[in-house]
């Protein structure tokens, strides 16, 4: 997340990386509340930016790929959820040792 620009909600990833312990606990409490109250509506929105593919003509719409700029808070919540889910699944032995993937 380092070196990234601000997300649509104006939060720069570096802010989250450099939070103190008290602020991290407050952030965790807020994220835990989203499980009870639902995700904030701002987290469900994205800004779509067209990026020109290398060596493609700018006047052709097929020459662009869309990039979605989403909330850094939503990304953080997704990462925390995925890590916790993986931990729980591994702990109770649901994930096979032969399973591979990303």
UniProtKB/TrEMBL annotation:
It comes from Trichonephila clavata (Joro spider). The gene is AVEN_151571_1. PANTHER family: REVERSE TRANSCRIPTASES. This is Reverse transcriptase. It comes from the Eukaryota.
């Amino acid at each position: 997340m380092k070196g990234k620009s601000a997300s649509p909600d104006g939060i720069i990833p570096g802010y989250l990386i450099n939070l103190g312990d008290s602020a991290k606990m407050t952030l965790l409490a807020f994220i835990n509340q989203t499980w009870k109250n639902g995700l904030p509506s701002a987290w469900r929105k994205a800004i779509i930016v067209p990026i020109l593919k290398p060596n493609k003509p700018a006047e052709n719409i097929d020459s662009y790929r869309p990039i979605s700029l989403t909330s850094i808070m939503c990304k953080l919540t997704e990462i925390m959820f995925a890590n916790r889910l993986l931990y729980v699944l591994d702990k109770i032995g649901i994930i096979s040792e032969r399973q591979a993937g990303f």
